[in-house]
Write a structure and sequence with these properties.
The protein has 4 helices and 4 strands; from the N terminus they run ααβαβαββ. Helix 2 packs across helix 4 (84-115). It starts with a helix and ends in a 16-residue tail after the last strand. It is mainly alpha-helical and 151 residues long.
């Protein structure tokens, strides 16, 4: 059983998939940081100093009654909140990751298309009289001796 598991785990596809998952997780972390630390602060600044991570709705107040200035304050008071600002940041992260994957797949498909060589030019043609295959440059059929003219 251990031998079978080792054979399964060492297959090329499984190892490639594991590497992809690890790299994908790291890429997700980078994109999350890009959205929350690089993109959203200037967008919030353009919208009047808004921090999207602090967009929330109080569903039930905590031990200390609201209003709460920030999401951290509401969570510290034990309030139940709907955090739609964090969700908005996650949607933007998803869109960036989806676009990056789209570009990756598009690049791979372009490389595959370039690898596919154009079909080779034909080397034979068909005699119009005896219908046998003859060299493309032939002016007379070697089988029926018919004159083919210039082709």
């Amino acid at each position: 059983m251990i031998k079978e598991f080792k054979e399964f785990a060492m297959r090329g596809n499984v190892v490639d998939m594991a590497v992809g998952i690890i790299i994908g997780g790291a890429f997700g972390t980078i994109v999350t940081s890009l959205v929350s630390d690089v993109l959203m602060p200037p967008i919030g600044l353009m919208l009047g100093g808004v921090d999207f991570a602090n967009f929330f709705m109080v569903l039930k107040e905590g031990a200390v009654p609201g209003p709460y200035a920030a999401l951290a304050d509401a969570q510290a008071a034990g309030a139940v909140t709907m955090n739609y600002g964090i969700w908005f940041n996650s949607v933007i992260s998803f869109l960036i990751i989806a676009f990056a994957v789209f570009l990756l797949i598009k690049g791979i498909n372009n490389m595959k298309r370039k690898e596919e060589a154009a079909p080779a030019a034909p080397t034979t043609k068909e005699c119009g009289f005896c219908f046998s295959a003859i060299p493309i440059k032939a002016t007379k059929c070697p089988n029926c001796t018919s004159s083919l003219g210039k082709s």
